[in-house]
Design goal:
alpha+beta; Alpha-Beta Plaits; Calcium-transporting ATPase, cytoplasmic transduction domain A; 51% helix
Length: 756
C-alpha cells in the first residue's frame, strides 16, 4: 500500500518527552501509518495511508494544538529561519534579565547584612523577592505555560520539572518573607532560616542560557541545509524569441525552455548548454574546489554559478525535479529518520519525568524525616534540607540531552555531507556502514573513469570499416560504456552501418543479431565460444598478451568466423589509489567485482592496490557474489554506478551509488555521490563513521550525566562527605548537559572529505 508523506512544522517542543507526546498524539489518528518527529528541526514527517481523506492534515494539526503544541504546514525556508532567529533572540533577552538580577539576588540572600524592616517585612528578603518576581513571571513564563499544557495532556516534560522546582522554591521563599510579619503562618515557615530566591533566579537564568546556546547551536546545525535552500534563484531569464527575454518565476519554467544566464549569476534550473562554453562553479552542489569547464551539450545544474561568459541552456527539468531539489529532499528525508537507539531513548524519556518526580519526593521525605538528627546538616533543618534536595533533584534531571543526542548529530552529518556532494539517505545507513568490514567496488566507472576508448583494432579477415560497422550496429541499443566507445570510434571512421535483425543482449557477454542469414556477435570470449568461434593457440597468446595491459577486448564475429577484435582502454581515476589506501586504513577489505576477464581486472586492481578480484561475473550474478561475501558473517559495502549494479547495491548491507549512475542504481543505494569518484565513496564512509562516533559519545554523556547527577542532587554523598548540590549548581549542570551534546555534535561542521 502506498502512503503519502506529509510534513509539518512543530512549535513548543523542548525535550525528548515532547517528541514522544507529539508522536503519540499523531499516531492516534486513523489515517496515520507512521510518524517521526525531529527535535532539532522542530518538524514532523507523517506517512498517511493512501486512502486518507483530504481533511486528515487539518485534523492532525488541530489534535497537535489541542495537545499543547503548535503545528502548521511547512513554511518557506526564509520564514522558518526568521521565526527561529526571533525565538533565539527572545530566549537570549530572558536569560540576560535573569542573570543580571541573579547577582543582586544572591548578594541579598547570602551576603548582605541586616537591612532592617519595611512595614514589618525583612527588607533584605523583601528586596530579594522583588528581584525574583520579574524573573519568575516573565523570564520563566514559558516554563509555566508549557508545564501546565503538558500536565493537561497527561504527560510530563522538562518544563514540568523546571516549573515544579522553581515554584516550590519561590512559594517557600515568599512564605518565609510573609512569616516575618505574620507569625500566624505555620511554624516551619516562621522558624525557617533559608530562602531560595537566588535558586529560583539562577535556575531560570541558567536554563534559559542553556536553551539560548542550544537554540543558537541548532540554528548553526541547520545552516548547511538552509544554505542549499537559498541557492536556487526565484526567477529565470527566459528567451521568448531570438532577442527578447523576460524574467519568469522559476516554478513556471517548463522543460525545453531556453534560459539565458549572465556572468556571475546563479543558474536557476537544470539544463543542457547550447552553442556556448563557460566555466561553472559547482562547489555548492558537488563540493569541487575548482571550476569545471562546460561546453555545448553538457549538462549544468541549478544552484551553480557561471564564472565567465553569457550562456544559454535548454531546460531538461522543472524546478521541483532539479538535482538541487532532489538533494534537499533526500537530506530532509534522512534527517527525519530515527535510529533504533533513539526510539529506545524516546521510550525512556516518556517515563523519565514521572520517575524523577517520584525520586525527588522520596528523597525529600527521607531527609525531612532523618535530616533533623544530622550533625552536618548544612541547612540546620530537616524540612529545609528536604526542600533543597527536592528542588535540586527536579532541576538537574534533564531529558533534553537524551532527546538531542541522535538527531542533532544526524542533522549536522547529513547537512555537511550534502555540502560536499555526499548524500546520506537514512540513519540506518550510518549505523550499518560503521559495522562493515568489506568494500566491494565495480571496475568500469568506479575504479576507472568509465569513458573507455578504442585504442587498437586487430583485423583478421576483414577491413576496419567492416568490423566497426557490424559492432556499432549491434551495440546501438546497449547502454554499456564499451558500446558508447565503439559507436564513437565508428562515427569517426565511417557512416555506413548494416541493417542487423533480431538484436539481443546476452547478459554479461555482449550482443548478437542476424546479418545476411548469419549470426553476428560482438562481445567477450565467452560469447565467441557460445556462437561456435574457435581460436587457435597463437591467437589465444595474442589475446592474453593484450589483456595483461589491463584493457578490455570486444570480439566481433560473423557466423563462426572471427573478424577481429577491438582493444578498449579506460583510464584509471587519479584518486582511486588514494581511495583504496584510505579504505584499508579504515580496516576494510577491498574487493573488485567485475564482469571483465581475470587478467585485465587484476592488472587494474594491482595498479590501485586492490588485493582481491572477482572477475567474469554476469550482471545477474553480482548480487549472488555479495551474498557469498556476507555468508562469512561480514557486512558488505557495495559501490557501483550502473543498472548492472542495482541488485548488488540493494542486497549489500550498504550501497553507495556514483552520482552519474542510473536512476535504478541511485534508488537502490543508501549513499549517493554527486561526483563520480571513488574517493568520495570512502569519504562518505568516513563521514558515516564520524557521525556515529558523535551519536555514541552524545548518548554516553547524556546517560552518564543523569546517572551521576540525579543521585548527587538527592544527597547521596551528604552523610559521607557533607556535600550537597545547591539548586543553582544543579541548574547549571542541567544546562551544560544539553549544550555539551549540541556542542559535541557541532564538531562535525568542521569535517572535510578526503583530499586528492
Amino acid at each position: 500500500m502506498s502512503q503519502d508523506l506529509m510534513r509539518l512544522d512543530i512549535q513548543g517542543m523542548t525535550c525528548a518527552a515532547c517528541v514522544s507526546s507529539v508522536e503519540m498524539i499523531v499516531n492516534k489518528h486513523e489515517s496515520v501509518k507512521a510518524v517521526n518527529v525531529n527535535l532539532p528541526l522542530n518538524s514532523a514527517a507523517i506517512q498517511l495511508h493512501n486512502n486518507a481523506p483530504e481533511s486528515a492534515t487539518e485534523e492532525i494539526i488541530q489534535k497537535i494544538k489541542q495537545g499543547g503544541f503548535g503545528a502548521s504546514r511547512p513554511k518557506q525556508s526564509k520564514d522558518r529561519r526568521s521565526i527561529l532567529e526571533q525565538h533565539v533572540s527572545l530566549e537570549g533577552r530572558k536569560a540576560a534579565l535573569a542573570l543580571i538580577l541573579a547577582l543582586p539576588t544572591i548578594y541579598l540572600t547570602m551576603f548582605a547584612d541586616d537591612l532592617g524592616d519595611f512595614s514589618g517585612f525583612d527588607l533584605r528578603l523583601l528586596l530579594a523577592a522583588i528581584m525574583t518576581i520579574p524573573v519568575y513571571f516573565w523570564s520563566g513564563f514559558g516554563f509555566i505555560t508549557r508545564a501546565w499544557k503538558s500536565i493537561r495532556r497527561g504527560g510530563a516534560n522538562m518544563d514540568v520539572l523546571i516549573h515544579l522546582g522553581t515554584s516550590v522554591a519561590f512559594i517557600w521563599s515568599c512564605g518565609v518573607v510573609l512569616a516575618g510579619k505574620y507569625d500566624s503562618l505555620p511554624n516551619v515557615l516562621v522558624n525557617a532560616e533559608h530562602v531560595f530566591f537566588d535558586g529560583v533566579v539562577f535556575i531560570i537564568g541558567f536554563v534559559l542560557l542553556g536553551n539560548y546556546l542550544e537554540s543558537a547551536a541548532k540554528l548553526k546545525a541547520t545552516d548547511a541545509i538552509h544554505s542549499l535552500m537559498q541557492l536556487q534563484p526565484n526567477q529565470a531569464r527566459v528567451v521568448a524569441d531570438d532577442e527578447f527575454t523576460e524574467m519568469v518565476d522559476v516554478a513556471l519554467v517548463k522543460v525545453g525552455t531556453l534560459v539565458k544566464i549572465k556572468t556571475g549569476e546563479t543558474i536557476p534550473i537544470d539544463g543542457i548548454l547550447e552553442d556556448c562554453k563557460a566555466s561553472i562553479d559547482q562547489s555548492t552542489i558537488t563540493g569541487e574546489a575548482y571550476p569545471v569547464r562546460k561546453s555545448s551539450g553538457d549538462e549544468v545544474y541549478g544552484g551553480t554559478i557561471v564564472l565567465d561568459g553569457t550562456v544559454l541552456l535548454r531546460t531538461n527539468k522543472v524546478a521541483e525535479d532539479t538535482l538541487l531539489a532532489n538533494i534537499i529532499s533526500m537530506v530532509e528525508d534522512a534527517q527525519s529518520g530515527k535510529a533504533p537507539i533513539q526510539r529506545l531513548v524516546d521510550k525512556i524519556s516518556a517515563i523519565f519525568v514521572p520517575v524523577v518526580i517520584i525520586l525527588a519526593l522520596v528523597s525529600g521525605l527521607f531527609w525531612a524525616t532523618f535530616g533533623h538528627d544530622m550533625i552536618d546538616n548544612p541547612m540546620n533543618s530537616g524540612y529545609e534540607l528536604a526542600l533543597m534536595v527536592i528542588i535540586s533533584t527536579l532541576v538537574i534531571a534533564c531529558p533534553c540531552a537524551l532527546g538531542l543526542a541522535t538527531p542533532i548529530a544526524l542533522v549536522i552529518g547529513t547537512s555537511v555531507g550534502a555540502q560536499n556532494g555526499l548524500l546520506i539517505k537514512g540513519i540506518d545507513a550510518l549505523e550499518s556502514v560503521n559495522r562493515c568490514k568489506v568494500m566491494v567496488v565495480d571496475k568500469t566507472g568506479t575504479v576507472t573513469m568509465g569513458r573507455p576508448r578504442v585504442s587498437h583494432i586487430e583485423i583478421i579477415d576483414c577491413e576496419v570499416k567492416e568490423i566497426l560497422s557490424i559492432a556499432a550496429a549491434l551495440e546501438q541499443e546497449s547502454v554499456h560504456p564499451l558500446a558508447s566507445a565503439i559507436i564513437t570510434s565508428w562515427a569517426n571512421v565511417t557512416s555506413d552501418r548494416p541493417e542487423i535483425n533480431d538484436i539481443q543482449t546476452m547478459p554479461g557477454m555482449g550482443m548478437v543479431g542476424e546479418y545476411s542469414g548469419q549470426v553476428v556477435a560482438a562481445g567477450n570470449l565467452a560469447l565467441m565460444v557460445e556462437v561456435g568461434v574457435e581460436l587457435d593457440s597463437e591467437m589465444k597468446q595474442r589475446i592474453t598478451k593484450s589483456t595483461k595491459k589491463g584493457i578490455s577486448i570486444v570480439f566481433v564475429c560473423q557466423g563462426t568466423k572471427l573478424l577481429g577484435w577491438m582493444e578498449l582502454s579506460d583510464r584509471i581515476r587519479d584518486s582511486s589509489k588514494i581511495a583504496v589506501k584510505r579504505a584499508k586504513q579504515l580496516g576494510l577489505e577491498v574487493v573488485m567485482l567485475t564482469g571483465d576477464n581475470q587478467v585485465s581486472a587484476e592488472s587494474i586492481a594491482n595498479q590501485v592496490g586492490i588485493d582481491r578480484v572477482i572477475s567474469g561475473v554476469k550482471p545477474n550474478e553480482k548480487a549472488e557474489q555479495i551474498k557469498s561475501l556476507q555468508s562469512s558473517g561480514d557486512k558488505v559495502i557495495m559501490i557501483g554506478d550502473g543498472i548492472n549494479d542495482a541488485a548488488a547495491l540493494s542486497i549489500a548491507d550498504v550501497g553507495i551509488a556514483m552520482g552519474a549512475g542510473s536512476d535504478i542504481a541511485l534508488d537502490a543505494a543508501d549513499f549517493v555521490l554527486i561526483r563520480n569518484d571513488l574517493i568520495d565513496a570512502v569519504s562518505s564512509i568516513e563521514l558515516g563513521n564520524a557521525t556515529m562516533r558523535r551519536i555514541r559519545s552524545n548518548l554516553g554523556w547524556a546517560f552518564s550525566y543523569n546517572v551521576i547527577g540525579i543521585p548527587l542532587a538527592m544527597g547521596l554523598l551528604l552523610p559521607f562527605t557533607g556535600f550537597l548540590l545547591p539548586p543553582a549548581y544543579a541548574a547549571a549542570a542541567m544546562s551544560l548537559s544539553s549544550v555539551s551534546v549540541v556542542g559535541n555534535s557541532l564538531i562535525l561542521r568542521w569535517w572535510r572529505p578526503i583530499a586528492e
